[in-house]
Amino acid sequence: MTDSPHTDVWPVRTERLQIRPMTAPDVDVMWEWRRRPEVNRWLGLAPATLKEFRERYLDPGRLTSMYLVELITENDGPTPIGDIMIRIGDGWAQLEVADQARGVEAELGWVLDPAHTGRGYATEAIRAVIDVCFGPLGLRRVHAGCFADNEPSSRLMERLGMRREEFSRKTALHRSGEWLDGLNYGILAEEWTPTRQSSVTPSTTNV
Fold first, then answer.
1. Alpha-carbon span 126 to 122, nearest angstrom
2. Is the pTM of this model over 0.85?
3. Is 58 helix (H, G, I), strand (E, B) or coil?
4. Are 106 and 138 in contact (CB under 8 A)?
5. Distant-in-sequence, close-in-space partners of 76: CB < 8 Å, separation ≥ 6
6. What φ, ψ does residue 115 adopt, rounded to 5°?
7. What are phi and psi of 138, to 5 degrees?
8. Is 106:133 a contact under the CB 8 Å cutoff?
């Protein structure tokens, strides 16, 4: 994994949202939706306490890959409604050309507060993030995975035009003790159609 995405491209604004790098105080906000059972059933880790959650996400290596999704309204300040992980990494390459494959792709992950689902916010946010990945960040590929039973996530990726690259049969052990199927999706820069509504705003902007 490489360093965090360039700080000069954030925050990013869409028609309704702002996406910005997460800071230490935001971790407690993120806990409010990630601690809910209907959310963390699909996550790789479900810390039982806020203390454990802080220990995990205040780690500098993890915090720098996390971004806060905020709902912007005319009369109120920004309202946090979700989080996104952007983990930039290397593509596979043969040894002789390995240097050319460093930092060329990103793995994405996301969580939306259940109080704000059903309004297209997650799709809008991830579309904007992919715009950044293939635009200012200059990456060649974006990928993401989920449990096959996590239909909202797989449907979101398909709406965005991501290609199902793998269906794996009972390869993921869930904390319930059941082995579950997995899905992996990806999309290349040349396959992506940028959206005009996403825009990078100066990092000094306060909303």
1. 6
2. yes
3. coil
4. no
5. none
6. -65, -15
7. 65, 30
8. yes
Q: Give the tens place of pLDDT for each residue, 134-161.
A: 999 999 999 999 999 999 999 999 999 9
* Radius of gyration for the alpha carbons in the chain, expressed in angstroms and rounded: 17
Other beta carbons within 10 Å of 108? 19
Amino acid code (one letter) for 206: N
Q: Tell me the one-letter amino acid at 12.
A: V
**Whose CA is closest to 127, among 95, 162, 103?**
162
Q: How many CB atoms lie within 10 A of CB 53?
A: 19
Rounded to the nearest 10 degrees, what angle do helices 26-34 and 50-57 cross at?
120
What is the C-alpha separation between 199 and 191, in angstroms, rounded? 20
Copy the structure tokens of residue 106: 């990103």
Quick: pLDDT tens for 13-50: 999 999 999 999 999 999 999 999 999 999 998 889 99
Strands (DSSP E) contained in the chain are 12-13, 17-21, 66-71, 79-89, 105-112, 141-147, 163-173, 179-188, 199-200
